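Retro notes
What went well: the complex prediction finally ran end to end.
Inputs used:
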Amino acid sequence: MLKLSSAGALAALATTVPGVAAPVESQRRTVPKWEIFEISLQGPSTGNPFVEVELTATFVRGGRTVSADGFYDGEGRYKVRWLPDEEGEWSYTTRSSVAELHGKTATFTCVRALPGAHGPVKVRNTHHFAYADGTPYFPFGTTCYAWIHQGDALERQTLKTLQASPFNKIRMCVFPKSYEYNRNEPVLYPFERNAAGESDFRRPNPAFFAHLELRIAELCALGIEADLILFHPYDRWGYATMPAKADDQYLRYVLARLSAYRNIWWSLANEFDLMKAKSVADFDRFFQIVLQHDWAGHLRSVHYSKSMYDYTQPWVTHASLQSYDFDVAAAWLKAWGKPIVYDEVMYEGNLNKRWGNISGEEMTRRFWLGVIAGCYVTHGETYLDPEQPFDENTTPTLWWSHGGTLHGSSPARIAFLRRLVEETATAAGAQSKLTGLDPGAAPYYLNASSADANGAIQEIVYYMDFHQPIYYEFPLPDGSFTAELIDPWQMTVMAVPGGFSGKTKLKLSGRAFQAVRFRRIA
Amino acid sequence: MLKLSSAGALAALATTVPGVAAPVESQRRTVPKWEIFEISLQGPSTGNPFVEVELTATFVRGGRTVSADGFYDGEGRYKVRWLPDEEGEWSYTTRSSVAELHGKTATFTCVRALPGAHGPVKVRNTHHFAYADGTPYFPFGTTCYAWIHQGDALERQTLKTLQASPFNKIRMCVFPKSYEYNRNEPVLYPFERNAAGESDFRRPNPAFFAHLELRIAELCALGIEADLILFHPYDRWGYATMPAKADDQYLRYVLARLSAYRNIWWSLANEFDLMKAKSVADFDRFFQIVLQHDWAGHLRSVHYSKSMYDYTQPWVTHASLQSYDFDVAAAWLKAWGKPIVYDEVMYEGNLNKRWGNISGEEMTRRFWLGVIAGCYVTHGETYLDPEQPFDENTTPTLWWSHGGTLHGSSPARIAFLRRLVEETATAAGAQSKLTGLDPGAAPYYLNASSADANGAIQEIVYYMDFHQPIYYEFPLPDGSFTAELIDPWQMTVMAVPGGFSGKTKLKLSGRAFQAVRFRRIA
């Protein structure tokens, strides 16, 4: 028996027919571009099908042929998923070590993408990102490491909070987290466990992965990229210390299941250098496995604690930093030739930990510093309720790990900054080159600019940081520009009447942490 | 004719007899310890006595003999100054290339120091300072580069402002300043000039130096150290580009005139590396001249713009930094084994220059960061009146250069911090070792401690910077301590009831930029 279905984002789920049984493989079906096309087959359930059964499907369109790994989904179900990225007629043929899964073939039609579906995010213009259809994408991420392990009520609250938030990327782990303030057991475990609580790393838990996929699809429906962390050190179940063979099998299983989700980024680890059972060579190998088995070519990076991974490696698509040193960003951008995301700049909060108690003002400042440095920044929040007793062995609801609700003052300011950055893509005379801000050429104060396809600067943003000049003479490039005084904390944009060119002397507020934007009018 | 007098600080002037004529050199006189003893002789005024007449005096007490250079003070007057640093009987004998100045001899008695006179400041306990009598001295300096060149009214206002300020050190230049916002001519020139305005660098102007000395004496009366800058690059009169011979002669003239002022520190230059007519070797030579001719051994350093002088040189007594990188302070303290003064951390103000427009909050923060790093910090202020038109070619009254009045919010907070640091010297069980804060051994947050002569920590201060924990567990050394919550901006110290030992969990305010102090009670 063969099932054909298109699954994926919630929006997609609403307009296509998920999990519907299709009688024969010769039947033609349609799937919108960048929604999941799924082949579902019934096969053997004896032994350990996760490792004993080989299944791939070859997808063909025109002269193009790509192979995708299938996976065992439990109860005799086998699946192969595909994310069609080209409209038109496609065909597929399966290959398997098991006769009943082998040689299945069919055709289907990829039709126009649904509204809001722009495809996977790719690197664009060296230091920036865009969706596959060319729509600029500016990552303004947040962090909820273990949110999918908190139970349905809290997870739904997290999604609701995300929907109203400025965040379009989320750093989240596959595995549950064992750490200070993270003592709860997960609802579902990623592998089968025996009565003694011992995991069989050779047997993934399909229910766990179905739940993970649901959350990823829900994020997709909200326009949020899932920056999925595949390994991390904060573990008491053995997931951080699996044998190499189990690591690799787990990776291939995740890649087979999730590569068809268009909103996936692969983060090979959170703080890889704190995983004492693993070496850099292990992560090099993991990258190779991802390269080989993610036919969709999702973004790939790895995050560190103290010791940086070599981001010059060709298999790394962008840097994922734990740092708040923005002064070195320009040198790194140049040396690496890749986008840089400051994925951990400490968290806004009031925790008893240095990494979890910076002010909303400082978080806002770090977002501005990162963006003006030509990079991107990720948020996180750790506010304890001051009325509650504190004990690191409890599990209060902290956004950084559990999700829930946001309490900080920075998200509103991050929303404001995101809007300003998105406006670079709609600047007067905007060209496809306009996908974000690059470190500015103007001397002295921190500034960044956005140029069109011909290299002509369309927009310049100055961020004054702790400086509070009462006036300043801004050197503008040739042409004529509007000027706006921006208050990143009050979230106001005040136009200065007139057009400006050459050395432009502006009276400023004399307050600190202000910004000035110039946009080309001629 | 011989004049004997004791000059010096205003306080001293009020209780001793300045400039009084003394009939014969054999007459016994008394001078308080650390006040100026001055020999005044009449000699030739023809030719160029500044360079053609040699004069020294040898001062003897017990088995100790020290030679001091004399100087020509115009109108046939020659002087030799001395700062007696030991009570008891002294004698002197002059030597000169001119017969009428040669062989003058007399005795005098050094009596107990006047109240408030503690002698010159010296390095104490490797990274700190104390007066010669052992009284701890904690530099909390400010900057008025050209204040002695602004005319009597403004200069008196500056002194009045200083008197009410927390500042006990002032960075000030001998030479006038030519720079943005510094376009005025000085009232007096350091060298004789002809009608065309050309200086004769071989002829110092005694009136200029008398005026400089008056200001230094007035500072001394206010308990303020004069961190006297001997060279600087901001010049239109030729003082930055004198021939080497003129440089050396000028230096020896200054050393002969001013070494007897107990509140002198020698700063060989402001931004020495911007003096394009000079090399590092020139400054090495200047240091040698100071070493050789300053018989009082005043503190010696040099300040830079971008390229640091080699502070490991044995003739440098302390580092004088232009920097606000406090993270490296611990490494520098260790490498150099000398006190570090962050003498230029930008200025509080609203100027159109990056160096002259940080907020009062940021200036306050930098003072705290410096002090917690085991160093000292110097203030400066550059506030333009927002109601006035701005033109860099004018000379508004900016404290940083001209003096006048203070407008910023940081001085009150610096006064508060100075009081806290001074309290380290009066901590329970205070010993002579207690002269300031050293970088703390406790991990994680920024902290500094003060130990007694036996190395037992008497006090620990934490500064939380942009962190805002709602509680924190502080690791205390053996013993029992009081705890106080300090708000550096509100300038409050709130005692937490009880005594604390071991790991001490304190509830904190949850606000950023707070401090906590622990002081030993047992």
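What we learned: Chain B has ten helices and 31 strands.
What to try next: split runs per interface for comparison.
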